[in-house]
Design brief:
Elements lengths: L2 E5 L3 H13 L3 E5 L2 H11 L3 E5 L7 H10 L8 E6 L3 H9 L4 E5 L3 H53 L1 H16 L3 H36 L8 E4 H16 L4 E7 L3 E4 L1 H17 L6 E8 L3 E8 L31 H11 L3 E7 L3 E9 L6
Parallel strand pairs: 1-2, 1-3, 3-4, 4-5, 7-9
Antiparallel strand pairs: 6-8, 9-10, 10-12, 11-12
Helix pairs in contact: 2-3, 6-7, 7-8, 8-9, 9-10
Length: 375
């Protein structure tokens, strides 16, 4: 129920207008002069103010100045009631910030039309303001989320960069310190492999920083090109064999055309993250199986592991940045990999699905559209 204040020194007019307003369902408040009207405004916070101009003690112009000077009531609709001949007073009131005026004598219908019009306009202004506030809140929330993402990325990379860098430095120092040629030949390949594996991890992390930056910008660029997919996948598997030091068994089944059009950068992120997760969450000695096949003009990329699986309650949040399943808390990681995979898949207009069972392994299936080869 809208609350309307009438400031009017003529008792007959005041009582009649208040009766009209109450009959129409409004909460009607009255004051006989400007000073008392201001007290009612401060106490009851009306939604609309109807105010006579010529009044004793404090006229309508002075009331308007006080109302507009208050932050709380600066936007409250204010309508002057005045004699039709007082054009100068009307013009002055409008220049001071009044919203409208109604000349005396006025009819019941004229008053109600004015009241409804002003209240509706106020409602629309409040809706616009609310929309702006919501947009500002959303922008602030997004800014906070981006700051949190950046702080987490800084923390993650400052921590995770240390391990491969330490391995590189230690391996290089050991190679440098080897004085026995036979010992050098025997252990050289192991330390060189460790260096190459650590460099690969660092490059992968740097690439993921770039993808995360694109994700923050709201758009990941997908640039498909013709590629030898089998050789591409085999190379990634060999890189992971090097990093994994043969702790797991890798197998590959491939039944796709020789040449496929995909974005190699995004495809590397998809496969590298899914394979890295399979290694991370699977026991030593278990098999990690990759199946690449063609189904109804769709490329299916499947990565199977025999790991710890994903709890049911974590599935709705699986692709959210930094989400970690409860059974993965003790395993090193920050939870960005799957969110990167999803964005890279979506950039290809593809889909991703998961089949999993706690302690029974996980299978991620990526479905990408097959782009026909031009002839």
């Amino acid at each position: 129920m809208a609350k309307i204040l009438l400031i009017e020194d003529e008792p007959t007019i005041r009582e009649e207008v208040l009766d009209w307003l109450q009959f129409e369902g409004y909460e009607a408040l009255g004051a006989p002069n400007g000073r008392l009207g201001l007290e009612v405004i401060q106490r009851d916070h009306p939604d609309l103010i109807l105010c006579d101009i010529a009044m004793p003690e404090m006229d309508g112009h002075e009331v308007l100045l006080e109302v507009r000077a208050s932050m709380r009531f600066s936007s409250t609709p204010f309508v002057f009631l005045t004699a039709s001949a007082d054009r100068e007073a009307i013009r002055r009131g409008m220049d001071m910030g009044a919203d409208d005026y109604l000349t005396k004598p006025f009819s019941h219908a004229e008053l109600l039309n004015m009241v409804r019009s002003r209240l509706r306009k106020k409602e629309l202004q409040e809706e616009v303001m609310l929309g702006r506030i919501q947009m500002l809140d959303a922008a602030l929330a997004e800014e906070r989320e981006q700051r949190l993402l950046k702080s987490r990325l800084v923390a993650m990379f400052s921590h995770d960069f240390r391990n491969p860098l330490t391995a590189i430095m230690a391996s290089a120092e050991l190679l440098d310190e080897m004085s026995d040629p036979q010992h050098y030949v025997t252990h050289k390949q192991k330390y060189v492999n460790r260096i190459f594996g650590s460099v690969y991890i660092l490059l992968q992390m740097l690439d993921e920083v770039m993808v995360v930056a694109e994700m923050e910008g709201g758009h990941i660029t997908c640039t498909p090109q013709m590629m030898d997919l089998l050789s591409f996948v085999e190379k990634i598997i060999e890189e992971f064999r090097l990093i994994d030091r043969n702790a797991h068994i890798f197998s590959l089944t491939y039944s796709l055309p020789e040449q496929i059009e995909l974005d190699p950068r995004l495809l590397r992120h998809i496969l590298a993250n899914l394979i890295a997760n399979a290694i991370k969450y699977s026991p030593v000695g278990s098999e990690i199986r990759l199946n690449l096949s063609l189904h109804h003009d769709q490329i299916w990329l499947e990565v199977h592991d025999q790991g710890i699986g994903i709890p049911t309650e974590s599935l709705p949040y699986l692709y959210e940045p930094f989400h970690r399943a409860k059974n993965a808390k003790q395993i090193k990681g920050v939870g960005l990999g799957l969110s990167i995979v999803r964005e890279c898949v979506l950039a290809h207009n593809g889909q991703i699905a998961v089949e999993t069972q706690v302690n029974g392994g996980t299978m991620f299936k990526v479905v990408l559209p097959l782009v026909p080869i031009s002839t």
